Known about the structure:
The protein has helices at about 5-35, 55-70, and strands spanning about 40-45, 75-80, 85-89. It is an alpha+beta fold.
Amino acid sequence: xxxxxxxxxxxQQFNRNCWLESAERKLSxxxxxxxxxxxxxxxxxxxxxxxxxxxxEEAGEMLTFLCKSLTKAxxxxxxTPNGTLIITW
Length: 89
């Protein structure tokens, strides 16, 4: 029998992957819409991207994965003091 910790880790990994795929699709669509108007940045409240996080650790983890994804795709990003994520290309 597998250990319960292994099962928990497996389900968390699945949920994390689903969240990241959903966030990437959402951002990609919005970025394409904005880029089609000639604008080279998109702003969104980072709070909208961590929906579903159960605690600060999960929220931080979500933002870390998103940071890596945006950087890998060639975007730059910053968060303003009021909590707005600005993605530029």
